[in-house]
Write a structure and sequence with these properties.
- With 246 residues, the chain is an alpha/beta fold.
- It is 39% helix and 16% strand.
- Strands 2-1-3-4-7-8 form a six-stranded parallel β-sheet, sandwiched between helices. The protein has a two-stranded antiparallel sheet with strand order 5-6.
- Strand 1, helix 1 and strand 2 form a beta-alpha-beta unit.
- Helix 2 crosses helix 3.
- The radius of gyration is 17 Å and the shape is globular.
- The two termini are 19 Å apart.
Length: 246
């Protein structure tokens, strides 16, 4: 584990689509050993809060819940770590949260610069498949988590072994379709006021959405696939700690 640091930080962790606070269980001990206070959150309608899902549970509801959780706990000087879909949630919430944040760490995250919604980023063919899954398995509004066949098809060198894949399939729950279709609204001034680090997972297909030094971003890498909290937790924790100390 990383050795303790001298300046404690408050770290909030938000996982990507279908996953909740427990997704970070292998990462949290590394961050706490380094002397930091860690809060792992679950968004409404997924994972251990799956029974809260409704057709109206979308990106905006998730952003509001994230901001409210941080405000209610009166957390300040927060390092907010957002994985995958949570990048869109965090981007939409940033107008409310910028004054409470010390830094952002986006991990293989979706960014609104690639499209204002996940639907826009996914494209017509991909969204056709997602809507078909919702129609067949989720009453038209609830999208089941990807089966292993789709992960193999779309997530490159994902680095998931059989146990990891079983964990992911057991942990991730369906997501309301509104999480794809609702658009994120970004406050440009809020972006400029917060230090930003993007952690690239080298196993992900395609080019990273930002490059080092671009528009104030620092880019770090972790040599694994899209779910590093499972496949490379110590390495991911080290990148978060590097972002805090930079």
């Amino acid at each position: 584990m990383p050795s303790p640091t001298t300046t404690p930080a408050t770290i909030v962790l938000v996982a990507g689509a279908g996953l909740g606070a427990a997704a970070w269980d292998l990462v949290v001990p590394h961050l706490e050993h380094a002397g930091h206070t860690v809060h792992a959150l679950t968004l409404p309608g997924v994972a251990d809060r799956h029974d809260e899902a409704t057709p109206q549970t979308g990106l905006h509801a998730h952003a509001d819940d994230l901001a409210t959780a941080i405000e209610t706990a009166d957390l300040r000087d927060v390092t907010l770590v957002a994985h995958s879909y949570a990048g869109m949630v965090t981007s939409h919430a940033l107008g409310r949260l910028a004054d409470r944040l010390a830094s952002l760490v986006f991990v293989a995250a979706a960014l609104p610069t690639a499209g204002p919604s996940l639907a826009a980023q996914t494209g017509e063919e991909g969204m056709g498949m997602i809507r078909a899954l919702a129609d067949e398995h989720g009453d038209g509004w609830l999208v089941p988590f990807m089966p292993p066949s789709l992960i193999e098809q779309y997530f490159g060198d994902h680095d998931l072994d059989a146990d990891d894949m079983a964990w992911l399939q057991a942990s991730a729950t369906p997501m309301p379709l509104a999480t794809w279709t609702e658009e994120a609204s970004v406050d440009p001034d809020a972006w400029r006021r917060v230090d930003r680090t993007f952690v690239v997972c080298t196993g992900d297909p395609g080019a990273p959405p930002v490059s080092d030094g671009e528009d104030g971003w620092t880019v770090l890498q972790v040599e694994t696939g899209h779910w590093p909290m499972r496949t490379a937790p110590a390495e991911l924790a080290a990148r978060v700690l590097a972002a805090i100390s930079s």
